[in-house]
Protein: SAM-dependent MTase RsmB/NOP-type domain-containing protein
Organism: Oenococcus oeni AWRIB429
Amino acid sequence: MLELPKEFIAKYRRLLGKEADDFLASFQMEADNGFHLNPLKDLRQFASLKRQAPIPWNRENGRYGKIFGESVAFLSGVAYSQEPSAQFVARVVDAQPGEKILDLAAAPGGKSTQIAADMNNQGLLIANEISFSRAKILSENIERSGITNCIVTNHRPDELAEHFENYFDKILLDAPCSGEGMFRKDPQAIKYWHSDYSSECANRQKEILKSVLSMLRPNGQLIYSTCTFAPEEDEQIMAWLLDNYSELSLLKIRKKDGIEDGRPQWADGNRELKNTARLWPNKIKGEGHFVARLIKSKGKNQKNKVNQLRSNLSRNDSQNLQNTFKENQFDFPIKQIYRFGDYLYLFPENCPEISGLKVLRLGLQIGRLKNKRFLPTHSLALSSLGNKISQTYDLSDYEFRQFIHGDIITNLKGNFVKGWVLMTKQSNGIGIGRYSDKVIKNFYPKGLRKTIHDQPRS
């Protein structure tokens, strides 16, 4: 039985009145698990996942259930584990191809992967995380999802604000919060809760929002979310924004399937706060969330001064790379390639200048140069651009286990010529191999190799 702090119980009995019993009882129920399917991948051979119960507010791609971390669906980036109510946030963002979007506190990447899929890899997504260790996890999830239009950065909000004044069409702040909506999923989170915790978090959220607003272009949208029920971090933060930033107003959010209005009476009574959305664990099948969508009115002479990135390849490097691409039948645009050491990245169109930024991933890592040879990388295999590799090999179930383990693939089906091979499973890229002497040598990253176990039955 989950033991809630006495002050937590008293607080929500005071706030919720007759609704409190059902709300508090919901914490003794099992956590709801979910995942979302990735439309950037080929989903035709994953009908069993598509048939699982849909999440009402993400009906097209959201499903209830669990994804096994060693399954084809997970390792190919077809599916991403994400708590059901958290999937509502990206639906509110409503990302469109061609937009410039910032996900400010993006790790581990559930919302960023949804946003990039909605953008269909067109436009620019900057996924930022202040913690370097979490930013690395974010970058890995972006890679596995086959995302090509994303820059992963590692900065404080105020540092980013120095680079991107009036720049973004939309900014998502899934704010660091007291995490009350995580109590069922992670009971250890209860240990951090105390009566002043929400007020402490609210002060931190206000400081972050000051930097956020300077990065939002006129007519741009700010989407704010938390996984807490605390009014101090939800309606009261929105009331503070409306009081202190006259250029902001709250947009309505479409609510159905048990999603409710925010509660103005828990802040300053401003009825505009009803435009926010609350997901309660006793009223929906999920852990709970708060979401708000604001728009910044047009201002005068608020143009951004962000320069566009250009390739840093020398003329000699460009010519050598063109020759290498021609030999390997690749046709990547040289003008969009940026070199970090031996690694080559294909950066998004209209990409901003990155000088002064701590960048973990610049669009798509397509390969590396070794002794003047071009070696395609794992990232390329996981993206839709993996089809630029002219040879493919579809792995059997047994060969899939071999390949993920790092073994050479022998007893091949079909005819091949010496060169690179895109290794696939269920029509999706899973890694890179190289055919030579009647075998396919394994280029699956050593840090990702593992023994595949039998999937547990649900």
Remarks:
- The two ends are 23 Å apart (CA to CA).
